[in-house]
């Protein structure tokens, strides 16, 4: 991406490219998140699955596969791996023993918290070269955007989701 394109108007089609370029420049520079994944023997997709489970009151493998736009066999393999690692539980649904409900364990919650803190530290380090005024302005805009996104997600499916911690 050329620097000239970084001045794109957020209303135009280049906004996604602009946001992606920003995230790429401020994240993963230290490699600590990738080191954490290696240390815990997990992949990015497995972490994303854990986050989905954390956000939902209860989920089944087929619901997770649908939400993640993945095949049920692929999700089932990830679930098996996360279960072996002690990061999720599988319990029979009370109304249908064939269905398995999934939930994140305390160990899984702790891992997600470590991922969140590691990512936050990398983003903080990645934006350290910005002026204090610009960092403050960016923080205000991000809070405003997150508030709007949170309100919209509650309106879409209030019974199925809860606000995730992180």
Give the arrangement of secondary structure elements:
Layout: H1 15-26, H2 32-40, H3 44-55, H4 61-68, H5 72-84, E1 88-93, E2 96-104, H6 106-126, H7 132-156
Antiparallel strand pairs: 1-2
Helix pairs in contact: 2-6, 3-5, 4-5
Helix content: 55-70%
Instruction: Briefly note the structural class of the backbone.
Output: mainly alpha
* Rg computed from alpha carbons, rounded to a whole number of angstroms: 19 Å
Number of domains: 2
In CATH, the architecture of the largest domain is Orthogonal Bundle
Low-confidence blocks of residues: 158-166
Strand elements, count = 2
User: What is the name of the CATH topology of the largest domain?
Assistant: Arc Repressor Mutant, subunit A
| Strand residue content | 5-15%
Pattern of helices and strands: HHHHHEEHH
Number of alpha- plus pi-helical segments = 7
**Average pLDDT reading:** 84
Briefly, what CATH class of the largest domain?
A: Mainly Alpha
The rough form would be described as: globular
**CATH level-4 homologous superfamily of the largest domain:** Winged helix-like DNA-binding domain superfamily/Winged helix DNA-binding domain
Largest sheet: 2 strands, antiparallel
Q: Between the first and last Cα atoms, what is the distance in angstroms? A: 30 Å
Strand order of the largest sheet: 1-2
């Amino acid at each position: 991406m050329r620097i000239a394109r970084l001045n794109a108007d957020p209303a135009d089609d280049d906004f996604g490219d602009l946001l992606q370029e920003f995230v790429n420049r401020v994240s993963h520079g230290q490699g600590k998140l990738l080191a954490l994944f290696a240390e815990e023997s997990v992949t990015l997709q497995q972490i994303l699955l854990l986050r989905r489970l954390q956000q939902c009151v209860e989920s089944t493998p087929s619901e997770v596969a649908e939400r993640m736009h993945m095949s049920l066999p692929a999700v089932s393999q990830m679930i098996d791996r996360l279960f072996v690692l002690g990061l999720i539980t599988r319990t029979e649904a009370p109304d249908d023993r064939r269905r398995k409900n999934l939930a994140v364990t305390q160990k899984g919650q702790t891992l997600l918290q470590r991922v969140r803190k590691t990512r936050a530290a990398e983003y903080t380090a990645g934006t350290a070269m910005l002026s204090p005024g610009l960092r403050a302005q960016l923080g205000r805009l991000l809070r405003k955007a997150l508030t709007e996104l949170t309100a919209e997600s509650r309106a879409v499916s209030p019974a199925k989701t809860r606000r995730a911690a992180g």
